[in-house]
Amino acid sequence: MDLSRITLRPFNLSDINDFMAWANDDHVIRFTGLNGFTSKEDGLRYLKEIAIPHPWRRSICLDDRSIGFVSIYPG
């Protein structure tokens, strides 16, 4: 696999469809503290209010498509 295809970047609202695909998979979110999202509106609210403003939360991307996230805290 070409590792240059994997990047970290801030979330965008345009990530919503990719986000909904993995953020509703119990196997993916098992250890994240997320509970899944019942609607696209819930997902958009999470991106707008939590993920995008979070100073250290980044989308893990493959070919610029969101496939997960990582949160890193100082200290």
From TrEMBL:
Q: Which SUPFAM superfamilies match?
A: Acyl-CoA N-acyltransferases (Nat)
Source organism of this protein record:
Macleaya cordata (Five-seeded plume-poppy)
Q: Which residues form the N-acetyltransferase domain?
A: 5-73
- The entry's protein name is GNAT domain
InterPro entries documented for this protein: Acyl_CoA_acyltransferase, GNAT_dom
Pfam families registered for this protein in UniProt: Acetyltransf_3
List the molecular function annotations (GO) for this entry.
acyltransferase activity, transferring groups other than amino-acyl groups
Which residue ranges traverse the bilayer?
none
